[in-house]
Amino acid sequence: MSTTTNHAATRTLAGAVLPAPGVWDIDPGHADVAFVGRHFMVTKVRGRFTGVSGAVTIADDPADSRVDVVIDLATVESGNPTRDEHLKSAELFDVETYPQATYSSVAVDWHGTEGTVEGNLTLHGITRRVPLQVSFEGYVRDPWGGDRAIFAARAVVDREDFGITWNVALEAGGVLVSKEVKLEIDLETVLRRS
């Protein structure tokens, strides 16, 4: 049994406060889709995409919910303009050929305020199943009357699974750039009003 609070923007389900059913649009200005790789197999290098859109559709049964996200790969930022241009080049993301990455969920396993979202990530023209570990971080009503649900998600992918194989072998062994990349996602979503 569920009850609603905060102008029907949240509900209590099995003792956990969760977003109410509906379409929650991603706020591009408050969406952080970041990645962390290793340089020289040691140093963490961080980047993020600023062009993010999509929605989280919350169903009556959380397991029936879905996530659809589009990422503009040309908006990559890593804090270094030269590296950003290399990331956009044909050696890595190849944004001229593959301008977008997409993620569409296919299954949700939800318990309390956390769960696993299984989805298809399409990147560099290749689609692979990627599980996201997702948590609902909370709800807030913004000063303009919008209802916001905040989510965080984490995953690890092998970039070579998506055909992004550029690298340089190091003289002492190993490679310049790690194959394994961590994804760190933080999203504010706004309840769509009909």
UniProtKB/TrEMBL annotation:
A Pfam family reported for this protein in Swiss-Prot or TrEMBL: YceI
InterPro entries linked to this entry: Lipid/polyisoprenoid-bd_YceI, TTHA0802/YceI-like_sf
Ranges in coiled-coil conformation: none
Domain Lipid/polyisoprenoid-binding YceI-like stretches: 23-190
Family from the record: Belongs to the UPF0312 family.
Name of this chain's protein: Lipid/polyisoprenoid-binding YceI-like domain-containing protein
